[in-house]
Design goal:
There is one protein chain. By secondary structure, the chain is an alpha+beta fold. The chain folds into three domains: 3-81, RNA polymerase II/Efflux pump adaptor protein, barrel-sandwich hybrid domain (OB fold (Dihydrolipoamide Acetyltransferase, E2P)); 133-170, Irregular (Dihydrolipoamide Transferase); 233-430, Chloramphenicol Acetyltransferase (2-Layer Sandwich), CATH 3.30.559. It has nine helices and 19 strands. The chain has helices spanning 132-140, 159-168, 194-201, 215-230, 243-256, 262-276, 320-335, 409-424, 427-430, and strands spanning 3-6, 16-22, 29-30, 35-40, 45-49, 54-59, 66-68, 72-77, 94-98, 105-109, 233-241, 282-285, 288-291, 297-303, 306-312, 349-353, 372-376, 380-386, 389-403. The strands form five sheets. Strands 11, 14, 15, 16, 17, 18 and 19 form a seven-stranded mixed sheet that branches. Strands 1-8-6-3 form a four-stranded antiparallel sheet, with no helix packed on it. Strands 5-4-2-7 form a four-stranded antiparallel sheet, with no helix packed on it. Strand 4 and strand 5 form a beta hairpin. Helix 1 runs parallel beside helix 2 (159-168) and helix 6 crosses helix 8 (409-424). The chain is globular and about 80 Å long.
């Protein structure tokens, strides 16, 4: 009899998880500690290894199905328990066909007459690794994932890889459309251009569409609702002359021949302000304010599946180069949904670079369990007054939201003033 392996608690407070992709099919062998399935928790997609070797007898759920912690995830039999199939003559009742992209099985009836043996063709690899949302984008575009080279972690195919492949491929035989003569009825001076005809043919439906939100989107919605309901938000705005900040970033990138994300400098600049005003690195716990000794800075990451906050542990112990490496690693991991739950929870302060997507000032929402969040916009050339002279300089917008139960307006302005001094002269925090 097969041994049942039940869905474990792989994160703090996990109650359920959604099956993203089975890595070992029913009937296939598996080794101990071999990844057997990918599951999605509230924020992370993680691989769960098999606790023992054997043959997968039964999956506890299909891809896309949600299982509760403690329910049967998979049943694994020892190899000796699996009966050896005896060869049977004639035609079987049905033959399973396993797709290489959508990983869904369909059954077709066996023909009544023998099928001629086709010419042998080279086996195609079926190792394309991609999240369900990426596979759907490829499937909708008629793109074969096996032809796409993945640039993500471990060769995983990202949404950007698929979109680049779609843009590079001609609209041709891969998804042929029924040819029809161009319409001239609405244009007296000739036929529509091809793109206009396509837009006319593919006009969106006027019917309502109900789209179930993903698990991540539901988690984001719940956190935002909780924060907005519980925290009386106050947001203070300002602008800084980013001339020196951008010069230092450029010099460091050239000297060390690596890209320095602006977040690395912003995190270093905000740390002295957190040291000076610890109320911004705290959690309101009932009638007490818990001041955190560690400075675990969250960095917001825009991913194809939604906003994630990756956490830099003990940011105060890291220099700018170390922060750059960590921020790049966390950003890649978040976009590929490969970070662990511990890397996506527990920040004590958050930095959100909305400038990365062209943003300016905003009103960021304070994440639950923290007291403040800093939003940094894109620096743009603007006229400013410098020592009585009108000059053009890159101006960076800042938006600081905080919990008004803990932080008053005066304290918020003092925090912002110290931060602005640091950003306008990086020597103040780089030598500190």
């Amino acid at each position: 009899m097969g041994r049942e392996f039940r869905l474990p608690d792989i994160g703090e407070g996990l109650t359920e998880a959604e099956i993203v992709r089975w890595l070992v099919a029913e009937g296939e062998s598996v080794e101990a500690d071999q990844p057997i399935v990918e599951v999605e928790t509230d924020k992370a997609v993680v691989e769960i290894p098999s606790p023992y070797a054997g043959v997968v007898e039964r999956h506890g759920g299909a891809e896309g199905e949600t299982l509760e912690v403690g329910s049967v995830l998979v049943v694994i039999s020892e190899t000796s328990e699996i009966p050896v199939e005896q060869p049977t003559p004639a035609t079987p009742a049905a033959t399973p066909i396993v797709g290489t992209l959508v990983e869904e099985a369909e059954v077709i009836e066996a023909p009544s007459e023998p099928i001629p043996t086709p010419e042998p063709t080279p086996a195609r690899p079926t190792s394309a690794k991609a999240l369900p949302v990426v596979r759907k984008v490829a499937r909708d575009a008629g793109l074969d994932l096996e032809t796409v080279i993945g640039t993500g972690t471990g060769g995983r195919i990202t949404r950007e890889d698929v979109e680049s492949a779609i843009a590079a491929s001609p609209v041709s035989a891969s998804s042929p459309r029924e040819a029809s003569p161009p319409s001239t009825s609405l244009r007296p001076d000739g036929p529509f251009p091809a793109e206009a005809a396509t837009a006319q043919k593919e006009a969106p439906s006027r019917d309502d569409e109900r789209r179930p939100m993903s698990r991540l989107r539901r988690t984001i919605a719940a956190n935002m609702s909780r924060s907005w309901a519980e925290v009386p938000h106050v947001t203070t705005f300002d602008d800084v002359d980013a001339t020196r900040l951008l010069e230092v970033r450029r010099a460091l990138s050239e000297r060390h021949e690596t890209k320095i994300p602006i977040e690395a400098l912003v995190v270093r600049a905000v740390l002295p302000a957190l040291y000076a005003f610890p109320e911004f690195n705290a959690t309101l716990d009932g009638d007490d304010l818990l001041i955190h000794g560690a400075h675990d800075i969250g960095v917001a990451v825009d991913t194809p599946d939604g906003l994630l906050v990756a956490v830099i542990r003990d940011a105060g112990s890291k220099g700018v180069l170390d922060l750059a490496v960590e921020i790049n690693r966390l950003g890649d991991g978040a976009r590929e949904r490969k970070l662990s739950p511990d890397e996506l929870t527990g920040q004590t302060f958050t930095v959100s670079n909305i400038g990365a997507v062209g943003g300016g000032h905003g009103t960021p929402i304070v994440p639950p369990g923290t007291t403040a969040i800093l939003s940094v916009g894109r620096a743009k050339e603007k006229p400013i007054v410098d020592n009585g002279d009108l000059v053009i300089a890159p101006v960076m917008p800042l938006s600081l939201s905080y919990d008004h139960r803990v932080i008053d307006g005066g304290l918020g302005r003092r925090f912002m003033s110290l931060l602005m001094e640091n950003l306008e002269e990086p020597a103040l925090f780089l030598t500190g």
